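Exercise 7b. Backbone tokens:
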């Protein structure tokens, strides 16, 4: 802080210039964003740096503190301000957080796994999907709103198109920003693979895990119902289809039609032709061009005419009813 006085230094044994120093302590984040914790004025020998403490008023100490590097004095407020700006950018502009960027990469893996499944490569599909679900968070944010914008995750463009159309038809004019979805679909396709391999208990556990992340998606209910049907638990399968009630933002007309058709097929296999027929006719209001519904109605007519049971079973139609 400059030369204060020239006087005798006991340690050096001769007269030395003595300077006023401001000694301070600090703590911080990453050794960059710091905050001063204590300050003490000292009169120290210029050469040996030994001396004694000085009594100074708070105003004098504050004035001398301006010599402390800025990031040691004001680093913590800078850090807090930067954090607020980053959070505001994420909320207002939809900038991806590290978690969002991770899910975007995992969504690409999930999509690649689906390609493997389509090509019959179940082994590589399972490996990729397991990598994805290993990153699934315990608390999953499926959607959030910022002012007049909703950020929401969809599996594909078909889901997005239905959601946007439904919102507009019901007077909701907020902007929709599509975010990639990785973890719910990964659990779903792992469950799908387990059903295919007749590992029904494992499949149900995987589908339940996905349903906890995205409870509004009927795909989990459909695949769980398939598992219970193949286990012979028709009543539980029917109750799952019953949960897909009205068309809404997350339930498309195609979803509603699938629930009705699938329930009808179970009822036909149980011998309740009238109830099955009624559900199939109801499903045509949502999906008029369904060949599955038309074929099943023809089967019912044949059964009434005394033909042998020829209904398409779940084992034969689980991919066709979707």
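Sequence design result:
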């Amino acid at each position: 802080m400059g030369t204060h006085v020239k006087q005798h230094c006991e340690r050096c044994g001769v007269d030395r210039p003595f300077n006023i120093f401001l000694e301070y302590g600090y703590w911080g984040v990453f050794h960059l964003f710091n905050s001063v914790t204590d300050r003490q004025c000292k009169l120290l020998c210029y050469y040996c740096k030994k001396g004694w403490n000085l009594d100074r008023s708070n105003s004098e100490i504050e004035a001398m503190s301006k010599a402390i590097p800025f990031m040691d004095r004001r680093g913590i407020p800078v850090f807090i301000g930067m954090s607020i700006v980053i959070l505001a950018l994420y909320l207002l502009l939809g900038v991806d957080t590290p978690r969002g960027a991770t899910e975007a990469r995992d969504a690409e893996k999930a999509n690649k796994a689906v390609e493997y499944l389509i090509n019959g490569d179940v082994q590589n599909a399972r490996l990729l999907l397991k990598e994805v679900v290993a990153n699934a968070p315990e608390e999953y944010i499926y959607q959030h709103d910022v002012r007049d914008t909703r950020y929401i995750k969809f599996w594909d463009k078909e889901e997005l198109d239905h959601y946007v159309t439904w919102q507009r038809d019901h007077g909701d004019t907020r902007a929709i920003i599509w975010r990639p979805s990785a973890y719910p679909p990964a659990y779903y396709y792992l469950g799908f693979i387990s059903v295919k391999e007749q590992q029904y208990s494992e499949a149900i556990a995987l589908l339940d895990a996905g349903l906890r992340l995205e409870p509004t998606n009927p795909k989990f209910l459909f695949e769980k119902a398939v598992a219970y049907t193949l286990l012979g638990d028709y009543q539980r399968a029917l109750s799952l289809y019953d949960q897909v009630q009205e068309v809404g933002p997350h339930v498309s007309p195609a979803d509603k039609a699938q629930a009705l058709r699938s329930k009808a097929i179970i009822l036909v296999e149980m011998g309740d032709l009238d109830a099955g027929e009624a559900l199939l006719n109801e499903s045509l209001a949502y999906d008029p061009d369904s060949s599955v519904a038309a074929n099943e109605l023809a089967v019912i007519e044949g059964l009434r005419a005394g033909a042998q049971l020829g209904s398409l079973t779940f084992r034969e139609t689980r991919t066709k009813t979707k």
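Instructor comment: Strands lie at 3-9, 14-29, 33-45, 51-53, 143-146, 149-154, 175-180. The mean pLDDT is 86.
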